[in-house]
C-alpha cells in the first residue's frame, strides 16, 4: 500500500506542476502575445499533464486489482473420455 501511495502522490505533484506550467504558457500565448504557437504548446502541455495523471492512476488501479484477483488456484489438464489429453 505504501508504494501505491508514493506513486499516486508523485503522479499528483508532477501532473499538477506540468498543468500549472501549461496554463501559464497558454495564458501568455493567448492573452499577452497573441501567438498561436505558444497557445498550441500550452494546450499540448495541459493535455500531457492530464494524460500523465490518468496513466498514473490507471497503473495504480491495475496493480491493486491484480493483487486482489490473484487466488493461487492451480490449473490442471482435463482428460478426455478416451484417455487422450485435450
Structure overview:
Helix content is 77%, strand content 0%. By secondary structure, the chain is mainly α. It has one domain (2-69). The protein is elongated, with a radius of gyration of 24 Å. The mean pLDDT is 85.
How would you describe this structure in keywords?
86 residues; mainly alpha; 0% strand; 2 helices
- The secondary structure category is mainly alpha
* Count of beta strands: 0
Order of helices and strands: HH
Oligomer: single chain
Strand composition percent = under 5%
Low-pLDDT stretches are none
- Overall helicity: over 70%
Count of all domains: 1
Tell me the overall shape.
Answer: elongated
**C-alpha termini separation:** 41 Å
Individual helix count:
2
| Average of pLDDT | 85
Biggest pleated-sheet summary: none
Radius of gyration: 24 Å
